[in-house]
Amino acid sequence: xxxYHFCTLAVAVSAVLLGCSQDIDEVASxxxxxxxxxxxxxxxxxxxxxxxxxxxxxxAEMANGLLDGQxxxxxxxxxxxxxxxxxxxxxxxxxxxxFASGKTADLIVIDDTGKKIWFWSMGMMFTQAIRETVxxxxxxxxxxxxxxxDVAAKIGKGYRLEAIFAGNATESxxxxxSKVIYTY
Length: 184
Known about the structure:
Helices cover 20% and strands 36% of the residues. The N and C termini lie far apart (75 Å). The strands form 4 sheets. The protein has a 4-stranded antiparallel beta sheet with strand order 7-6-10-12, with no helix packed on it. It has 2 domains: 1-42, no CATH class; 62-183, Intracellular proteinase inhibitor BsuPI (Immunoglobulin-like, Sandwich). It is globular and about 40 Å long. The longest helix is centred in the first third of the chain and has 17 residues, at 2-18. It is built from 3 helices and 12 strands. Residues 75-168 form the Intracellular proteinase inhibitor BsuPI domain. This is Intracellular proteinase inhibitor BsuPI domain-containing protein. Pfam families: BsuPI. InterPro entries: Intracell_prot_inh_BsuPI (IPR020481), IPI (IPR038144).
């Protein structure tokens, strides 16, 4: 009876440590757990700082989006700021994109202390429908944002505009587009 409780405890502890998974095969006769895919659990001889450097390089590669973005800014006659996000697919293939709503992108105004003071989407409502599209190779599209005169009057040295693309690349681990920053 004691052996049975010990085996049950060993299985419970292993399930907590390894998580519930279909990769674990229980050997009932011995009450042991044997991982089917041991490569995930294998200890490496690399020091933690070497693994960290490798992960940082991978994150740096992942930060580059599939689409290239550019933000141009013009002050209009009535003191508004018109910011235009141009995004281009410079890949040799079409990039499948999915949007969770009717919003294609957003623009954020950030002051010289790093505080977000205005969002283009502030107070707006967007269609809550999934949109799927393919951005053809070589194509450029634009999204225009209008910053009202009262907000534009506050923008000065050290402020920045950040354009954030709302679409997700559906067939890639890379982001569709990195945020685009314009600094005053």
